[in-house]
Amino acid sequence: MFESAEIGHKIDKETYRKAVPALRAALLDAQFDLKESAKIPVIVLVSGQDGAGKGETINILYEWMDPRYLSTLAFSEPTDEERDRPVMWRYWRALPPKGRTGIFAGSWYSEPIRQRIEDEMPLTELDARIDQINRFEAMLVNEGALVLKFWFHLTKEAQKKRLKALEKDPRTAWRVTPWNWARLKSYDKLQEAAGHILRMTNTAWAPWIIVEGSDDRYRSLTTGTVLLDALRQRLATGDNQDTPVAPPVRTNIDGCNLLSELDLKRKLGSKSYDKQLAYWQGRLSELVRDPRFKQRSLICAFEGTDAAGKGGAIRRIARALDARQYQIVPVAAPTEEERAQPYLWRFWRHVPRHGRCTIFDRTWYGRVLVERVEGFCSEHDWLRAYSEINDFEHELSEAGAIVVKFWLQISPEEQLKRFKEREKIEFKRFKITPDDWRNREKWAAYQQAVCDMVDRTSTSTAPWTLIEANDKNYARIKILKTVCERLEAELDGKVVGESAGKKSAGKGKYRK
Fold first, then answer.
1. CB atoms within 10 A of CB 434
2. Exposed/middle/buried for 191, CB within 10 Å: 0-12, 13-18, 19+?
3. Ramachandran angles phi, psi of 170, nearest 5°
4. Do domains 3-237 and 270-511 have the same CATH topology?
5. Nearest alpha carbon to residue 50 among 150, 199, 156, 170
């Protein structure tokens, strides 16, 4: 892949001097149009060999463009806070919003390359990581991002010459360290690892641009021109670079589905409820204080029909926890800040650290439920969301999170009864809105969306539990019991997932 970047590309001073002013003006115009449209985030990854000009190129872009609308994200060794979360978490939260450009100095490619060079990652594991990266970048592009990946290349001799020149100049000598010279010895291993990764991730939606880094003027002009051309093309079309998504949803021909088969008549008497509530809340309190939980985290995701009792169930869980240990995240319509990011961004930033719990009242499944049914996103968007959500939950599990997902189901008759009760009770009136009444008219569409959701996103690492919620006592106990049993199994290591230490609840696609 590097042959064309080893032929000695150069730009003379006069050509460079004449080309730069027009390029700078055009980049500023494109940057202003990007800001005004506020529809596209631009993600620029800057990677390559030591001494190939990564830092100089970033500085040039800041000189040529308006720095107010640029952000540089530099990543080194992950912090303790970052190690407690999925490996992608620190990149998720650093993504630029629409209308801005984010330049990543070091990216999600840096650690896999390092681990491969140091023989810490076998090829099979590397290929699995590459597949995750490709899917992540496809999601970014489908969300509207322009992703440009630059690899600045040097031959081994050119790198040695470059490091000596930098070391000789008092103004740049500080940039060359013993670590850089040590890295030169692993040049061949870097070429092998980088070549494999670049080849496997050189996709149509997020291609690599390999640039020879020995001549500063050539490198700078090439980078600026590529960035300008890509910006102009995207601003002119305005279209997302859609990649293939999921197969179409299946037609139900007999009217029988997961929800229709639930027994909504299940009940629990008050005396039994009080006794079991005390028991399971006490058990949950013990489990989250277990020393083994310090290396795990708990995520409870609640979805359900309107008035199904999510809030009441969440309060029963919260009463068993230390207020310093958990966070409840209520999810409503996205804010302007959230709409400027991928739809998963507002959930990424609430991922808990080890030893903590996060409870989501409504979740990332809004994309395949309300947004699907109400037409707030295209069919392409909600179809691809199934695999994107599965990837997200898989990464949570890999990082040690225990993901427990609940769908609370009630009958149309019970919902109508609860709606009317809410209208009569002063402190519950805020819970009933015109949207709730309007959604009843789309009951069948929502039920179909729920069934498709469960079929496509109930995995061994993050299974759905369907809750018969006509009786609140029964629903609350089943939820508490499910959380405790899942925590207990994970901490005891009784349920084996896809990797050591990241256990899964492999009891079928979903739980009834």
1. 7
2. middle
3. -55, -30
4. yes
5. 156
pLDDT at residue 133, rounded to an integer: 95
Q: DSSP states of 166-187 as a string? A: HHHSTTTGGG--HHHHHHHTTH
pLDDT for the residue 190: 86
**Per-residue pLDDT, 431:** 63
Note the pLDDT tens digit of each residue in 212-247: 998 999 999 999 999 999 999 999 887 555 555 566
Return the DSSP state at 68: G
Domain boundaries, the chain: 3-237, 270-511
Report which secondary-structure segment, H or E, holds 234: helix 216-237
Whether residue 68 contacts residue 262, with contact meaning beta carbons closer than 8 Å, is answered with: no
**Would you tell me how many other CB atoms lie within 10 Å of the CB of residue 143?**
20
Say what the pLDDT of residue 243 is. Answer: 55
* The CATH number fitting domain 270-511, selected from 1.10.10.10, 3.50.30.70, 3.40.50.300, 3.40.50.620: 3.40.50.300
Please tell me the distance from the alpha carbon of residue 502 to that of residue 357, in angstroms, as a whole number.
16
Q: Kindly give the parts of the chain with pLDDT less than 50.
A: 495-509
Report the greatest alpha carbon distance in the chain. 89
Entry field: residues in the chain: 512
**256 class by beta-carbon count within 10 Å (0-12 exposed, 13-18 middle, 19+ buried):** exposed
Per-residue CA distances from 388 to 54, 394, 397, 443 (Å): 31, 10, 14, 26
Residue with tokens 């400027």: 340
What per-residue confidence (pLDDT) applies to 430?
A: 61
The string of pLDDT tens digits covering residues 474-497 is 999 999 999 999 999 999 985 433
Phi and psi at residue 360, to the nearest 5°: -100, 120
Distance separating the N- and C-terminal Cα atoms of the chain: 52
pTM of the predicted model over 0.70:
yes
* Contact call for residues 156 and 190 (beta carbons, < 8 A): no
Burial category of 223 from C-beta neighbours within 10 Å (exposed 0-12, middle 13-18, buried 19 and up) = buried
Q: CA 60 to CA 23: how far, in whole Å?
A: 12
Q: Which CATH superfamily is domain 3-237 in?
A: P-loop containing nucleotide triphosphate hydrolases (3.40.50.300)
